Each structure stands twice: as structure tokens, then as C-alpha cells.
Here is the input.
Amino acid sequence: MKNLMDTYKIKFTNSSGYKNIIVGIDNNFTLKDGSVALEAAVKSRIDTFLSANSQDKEKKVLNFSLYENGIEQVYLVNVDEKDNATLIERFAAIGQKIRSAKTADIALYAWKDSASNGTLLPAIEGFLLGTYVFKGYKKEKGYQVDFSGLDIVLADAEQTSELTTELDEIKALVSGTFLTRDLVNEPANIINPSGMERVAHDLAQSGEWKIDVLDQQAIIKKGMNLLNSVGMGSVEKPRLVHLSYRPQGAKKTIAIVGKGVTYDTGGYSLKPQNAMYGMKSDMGGAGTCYGVVSAIAKAGIKVNIDVYTPLVENMVSDRATKPGDVFVGYNGRSVEIENTDAEGRLILADALSYAAEQKPDCILDMATLTGAIVIALGDEIFAAFTKEEEIFKGLDAAAKLSAEKVWRMPLEESYKKGLKSDVADCKNVGGRAGGAITAALFLSEFVGDVPWCHLDIAPTAFSDSNSALLPKGGTGNPVRSIYRWLKSQQS
Ligand code: BES
Ligand code: ZN
Ligand code: ZN
Here is the structure.
């Protein structure tokens, strides 16, 4: 699966002669030393600009036209903050600016010690993330950007093999994020269940991943009737894609499960039209899994990983589920379908009990599960539901390194009463109040005693506004957090 990132050329260099340059500045609003590769004339012009604009001292990211020594634009970023999230955010803003400036010729001048003190790589990560654009289907073909890569001018540091490996990992992470963004942005007539399955086959080919696809027949045979009940209303048949990764030397086995509703009409509990538009993004959980798979396939980590993506299109037809229907899931639990629009939890239920059967060390699921969590957390923070203190701590730390934001929500057992049904073991909705919590509680019935964490990524997977890290459309959030958390589980 090629994406925009895979077309970029990124290299370390010590040459000069670039039209556009990015340099670091400090809290005193002066050029960060270490950018010694710059000619004296250019340096002094930058100094002059900074002292003439000292009223902008509070600005962390700015640029100006230079036209000196062949340099046209200078981008200045305050790099005095050492935390990754701040650096990623600031450089993403630069990446976004440069994407629309349509320039091919760009160099990042590494500031003093940036390669060794850990500030250079988050800068590169942020910059690359900011350059994303969806290829789309306009008559004028292509990405419509001239930007084709980044040269990193290393003045004070050697290009070590460690640095190269770290850069490769950043490239893998950005590429995985771009894959997820592309998958969410693709229309639902292209990325339908068979489209997603094709992507999974491509991913399996590119790395050391084994793939096993359960088609509708197998799903029915295994008794995954909850999964089937959501997908059976569409000519696009449901499937469960299982990708597995067994690197040498791995000790832990972690399962990740992603909601893959390639379109959510709501079914017979039909969504109103303004709520339906955008529901091509309802495969964001599965898309996130594939982004993580892509990153791991390129970078490699020492953890056994099983990825389960139930894929369905939630449609209306003579074969679709009707409100009030009852189905028995893979783990034997019967569920009354009160609302066919609460479909994500149904397909996850069967995928989770299938994953739990293998007794992994833990299961992490991700899903654009509820509108309720968007109301609770707004559009920049996704939710984690887990009883495992350690898992949450690890995820939170990974998110902080990635400029992504997670908030822990309660699994309040007493709210389970909302899921009581008159005719079945439970029903699939628990009322409007605490809707994200009852959805998570529903899922908890299908994981047995395997340590488990549920991520409701409805707030962040898809964005209506356009910021550098959460671009309009698919955001690829939280691919990088999950990759980093999985990596932290290496032993
Ligand atoms: N896919 C939606 C959740 C969603 C809403 C994601 C908005 C992204 C943005 C999910 O399948 C759904 O429809 N949930 C219902 C549940 C309700 C019927 C209990 C919801 O949130 O309204
Ligand atoms: Zn729904
Ligand atoms: Zn949905």
C-alpha cells in the first residue's frame, strides 16, 4: 500500500543551497546555535529579522521572505521546549504551511545537539505529519503538492547508524498514519469490506504477517451471529480478517481489535442525513489497526501481535436486522437488538470473544463507537476504558510522546442494569445517559478474564476542522500512540 509518505525522499546531508530553510530559535528570540551550516550573511539577516520583530516573541512558529544567498523563505521554530508533543505540534504547523506553499526544495537545519538530545526526531515527525494531503479523485490527478522530501542538514552531529534507524522508524510511523488517513478518506464505495480485505492482503504481503480471512460462511459456521447480523443486510458480505505477527524473541502476545464498519447508515434505526454523511469513517478502528500493522511491518518490534478486524457495511434491506431481533454471539450470549445503529459493539463482541479464546496477554480494541463520547470529550481527545492501571499509564505515556490525547473513563459496573433485556441475556443499548460507558460495559461481557482496554476513538478518528495534526477528514490518530505502546511492551 503506497501512500504519500512513501513518495518522499528524506535524507541527512551537510550540503547547502536550499530555497527554503527551517531553523530553530530559542526563548530569547535568537537563532539557535548549531545551525552553523548557514552562511554568515544569511545568519545576520535572520538575526536582523528577529530583533526587528521582537514584538512577536510569543510566536513559536513564524516565517519570512529572505531572498539572500538563493534562500527564499525562512521558517523559524522555537525549539527550546524539549517535550516531544510540543515539538511535534510546532513542526506539524510548518509542514502544513509548506504543503500549501508548493515547494520542493526544503531543508531542516538541525540545531545544536538536536540529534543527541532527542529533539530532532519529533521535529521531523511533526513536519512530515503536517504535509499530508489526500490524493482524491479530481480530474487534475495526483497529490497536487510539489513537496517531495526533506533534507536534514546535520552540522554539529555525525550521521550515526542509530540516527538512521530512528529516522526509519519515524518514516514507518508517518507512513502508517498516512495509510490510516487514506483509508478513512476513501469513499465507502471503494473502501467497503472487500476493499478493506484487499488492503489487509497487501499488508500481509509486505511484511512478516500471516493472514486468515473468515468469510460469511465461516462466520456463520463458527456462530458469530452478532457479527453476521450487522453485515447480512448488504451485498458486501461481512468478513473477519485476522493478521498475525510472530517475530523472533518475542515474549508477550497482544491482540488488537478494530471496528470496521465501512459505512454506517444506522440500519433500520436509520441515521438522519446530517448524521449519516461522514459515516465512511466508521471503519476508523480497523483503519487504525492497519496503520499500526503497516508501521510494524516496516519498523519491526519484538511483540507477538494478533490483529482482528471485523468488516461489515451496516445497511437496510430485506435481510437486514430489525429492531427487536435476537442473536446469539460466538461466546454463547444472546443479545436483543434494540437499536440497529448500535452495531459497532455487536461486531466487536464476536471479534473480542474470538480473540479472547486465544488467551493473549491483553486485548486492546479501538472503535468509532459512540456519539456520546464526542459530546463528552470534544474532538481532540479519545477515550480509554480499562481496569488495568498499567495499560492506561503506558498508553497515556505513549500518547504524550505522540502529541495525541487520551482520557480515562470509568467502567461503572452499576450502569450494566441499563443493558437488561426482557427476552435475552442483554440488549445492545443502555440508554442515552452515559452512552459511551454502557457501550464499553457491553463489550466487557465478551473478553472473559483477559486484561482488556477499549478505546473509543469516535472523537479523533475523523475531523471536521483542519488542523496540522488533526487534518480535515481521516486523522490517523491514534496510530502512533498504539505503535509506541506496543513497542513499550517488548521484553
Ligand atoms: N458509528 C456510530 C458512532 C459515531 C457517531 C461515530 C458520531 C462517529 C461520530 C455508532 O455506530 C452509533 O451510531 N452509535 C450510536 C449508539 C446509540 C444508538 C446507542 C450513537 O452514538 O448515537
Ligand atoms: Zn451506528
Ligand atoms: Zn457505527
About this structure: The chain has a mean pLDDT of 95. The pocket of zinc ion (ligand 3) is lined by residues 261, 264, 282, 343-344 (CB under 6 Å). The CA atoms of residues 136 and 186 lie 8 Å apart.
